[in-house]
Amino acid sequence: MSLTEPTIIGALSPSRAGDFMTCPLLYRFRVIDRLPEPPSPAAVRGTMVHSVLERLYDLPAPARTVAAAQELLEPQWHKLLAEDPAYGGMFADDREQAQWLAQAGSMLERYFTLEDPTCLEPAERELYVEAVLDNGLMLRGYIDRLDVAPTGEVRVVDYKTGSAPGPAFEAKALFQMKFYALTLWRLHGSVPRLLQLMYLGGGGEVLRYAPDEADLRATERKVQALWTAIERAMETGEWPPRPSRLCDWCSYQELCPQFGGTPPPLPGRQPGDTVRSTRRTSRAATDEL
Q1: DSSP of 125-157, one letter per residue?
Q2: Distance between CA atoms of 21 and 112, rounded to whole angstroms?
Q3: Contact 84, 39 (CB under 8 A)
Q4: Looking at the DSSP assignment, which residues form a beta bridge with residue 143?
Q5: Average pLDDT over the chain, rounded to whole?
Q6: DSSP H or E stretch at residue 66
Q7: Exposed, middle or buried by CB within 10 Å (0-12, 13-18, 19+), for 49?
Q8: Which residue in 24, 60, 162, 284 is deepest, having the highest Cβ count within 10 Å?
Q9: What would the pLDDT profile of 39-74 be if each residue is shown by its tens digit?
C-alpha cells in the first residue's frame, strides 16, 4: 500500500455494495436520491437483538444467561422507541407488538444454543472500521464482534436474525464478511483467521469460512469493479432495475418502472459525493454509503 493516503473517490459499505449488486436502481434510491423508507419490523428487530447481544458482554461472564438477555430486551426496545417514535406505528395493536417482541426473545434463546457467551471475552463489539484502497475507494462499516485469541488470531463474527441461506446462496452471504476481512487486512496487514456468520432465525446455524490472501485480493477486485460500475451509472444517469424475488420487499415499488412507476429526477451529485468528509459517524449513517 502507498505510504501516502490517496484522494478518496468514494465510499462503500457492505450493505450498499450489496444493494448495487441486487439492483442498481435500489442503490440509486438509497444513496443518490436518499429517499426515506418506512421502518421495517424485521430490520428494527434485528437492530434490537444486536443491541442486546452487544450489551450482554458488558455483564460478568457468569451472568451472561438466557434470562439476563431476555431482561435486556424490553429496555432496548423502549430505547429505540424513544429515539424514533415512528417505530411504534409498525404494529396494528399491542398484541402484534408482543408477538414481535416474543420472536426477538426466541432469537436470543437460539443464540445460546450456538455458543456459550460465558466462555468468551470479545476484543471488540460494534467496531467501526475503514480503510482506503490504492485507487482511493474507502471501505467502511461496523463489525458486530471481533474475537482475538491469545495467539493473536482474529475471528470476525456477524449476527443475522434471518435464516441461514441454502448452499447456492452462501457465497453471497459471505461477501459481507470478506468485505470486512479485506478492510481489516488493508488496515492492519494481517488476514483474519476465521469469518463466522451466526443465524438466529429458523433453526439457528453457524456458517464459518477461513479466508486467505487470494480470497481477499479477489474481493478487492470485485469491490473495485463495483465502484467502476457505480461511477459509470452516475456519469450516464442510467440506473436499471434488476427484477428478482426481493422486489416483493422493496419500499420503492411505486417509483420503479418494473411496477409502472417513474423515478424522480436525478439530483446533481457527482462520483465521490457519497463520502464527503464524514470519516466516522453513526452505524445508521454509515450504512447509507
Answers
A1: EEEEEEEE-TTSEEEEEEEEEEEE-TT--EEEE
A2: 33
A3: yes
A4: 127
A5: 91
A6: helix 66-83
A7: buried
A8: 24
A9: 999 999 999 999 999 999 999 999 999 999 999 999
Give the 3-state DSSP-derived string for 9-63, with helices as H, strands as E and coil as C. Answer: CEEECHHHHHHHHHCHHHHHHHHHCCCCCCCCHHHHHHHHHHHHHHHHCCCCHHH
Pick from 176, 208, 205, 40: nearest CA to 107: 205
Q: Cβ distance 136 to 9 under 8 Å?
A: yes
Return phi, psi of residue 125, to 5°.
-135, 140
Contacts of 237 (CB under 8 A, 6+ apart): 266
Alpha-carbon gap, residue 53 to 47, rounded angstroms: 10
Query: What is the Cβ-side half-sphere exposure of residue 190, based on CA atoms within 13 angstroms?
Result: 9
pLDDT tens-digit profile of 12-35? 999 999 999 999 999 999 999 999
Gap between the Cα atoms of 286 and 189, Å rounded: 23
What is the DSSP annotation of 206-254?
A: EEEE---HHHHHHHHHHHHHHHHHHHHHHHH--------GGGGG-TTGG
Q: What is the DSSP letter of 273?
A: T
Per-residue model confidence as pLDDT tens digits over 153-203: 999 999 999 999 888 788 888 999 999 999 999 999 999 999 999 999 999
pTM for the model: 0.89
Q: What is the pLDDT of residue 276?
A: 42
* Long-range CB contacts for residues 230-235, cutoff 8 Å, separation at least 24: 230/10, 230/20, 230/27, 230/271, 231/9, 231/10, 231/271, 233/24, 233/28, 234/32, 234/269, 234/270, 234/271, 235/271
